[in-house]
């Protein structure tokens, strides 16, 4: 199981960027940020066995950074908890399987890539302003 510390660092960096973004730019990027936060929350639910939580609300553009950080930390906790539960014959490993379940690693990689892409978008265009 991969260490989620890179995910947390990327999420915190993006959240800080959203918190310090000019309002005009924030208005433009907040819907995408909220969609990303909701995707991270769905991935955490998936790793937790489909436990349904209420969808992250649309609480305004000024809280999107916090929503991204919250969802990423929930995902990291689910990844960490899943790693603790894994082991020889654990939930992440099928009986008779040679390889452990690759789902957590895939979700981590996809989430990290999306966070990094969002950060590039959030910094590239605003740097030209």
Return the average pLDDT rounded to an integer: 83
Q: Count the helices. How many? A: 4
- The Rg value, from CA coordinates, equals 16 Å
What's the SSE pattern?
Answer: HHHH
Q: Based on helices, strands and strand pairing, what is the structural class?
A: mainly alpha
Q: How much of the sequence is in beta strands?
A: under 5%
Question: Unreliable runs, pLDDT <50, ≥5 residues?
Answer: 88-100
Total beta strand runs: 0
Explain the overall architecture.
With 129 residues, the chain is an all-alpha fold. Helices cover 68% and strands 0% of the residues. It contains 4 helices and no strands. The longest helix has 25 residues, at 23-47. Mean pLDDT is 83; it is low at 88-100. Residues 81-106 are annotated as: Disordered.
Short description:
Residues 81-106 are annotated as: Disordered. With 129 residues, this protein is mainly alpha-helical.
Features:
mainly alpha, globular, 129 residues
Question: What does the secondary structure layout of this molecule look like, with pairings?
Answer:
Layout: H1 5-20, H2 23-47, H3 64-85, H4 103-127
Helix pairs in contact: 1-3, 1-4, 2-3, 2-4
């Amino acid at each position: 199981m991969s260490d989620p510390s890179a995910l947390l660092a990327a999420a915190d960096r993006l959240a800080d960027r959203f918190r310090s973004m000019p309002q005009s730019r924030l208005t433009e990027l907040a819907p995408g940020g909220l969609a990303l936060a909701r995707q991270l929350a769905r991935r955490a639910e998936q790793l937790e066995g489909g436990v349904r939580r209420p969808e992250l609300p649309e609480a305004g553009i000024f809280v999107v950074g916090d929503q991204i950080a919250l969802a990423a930390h929930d995902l990291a906790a689910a990844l960490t908890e899943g790693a603790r539960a894994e082991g020889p014959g654990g939930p992440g490993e099928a009986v008779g399987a040679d390889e452990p379940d690759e789902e957590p690693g895939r979700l981590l990689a996809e989430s990290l890539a999306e966070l990094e892409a969002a950060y590039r978008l959030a910094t590239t265009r605003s740097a030209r302003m």
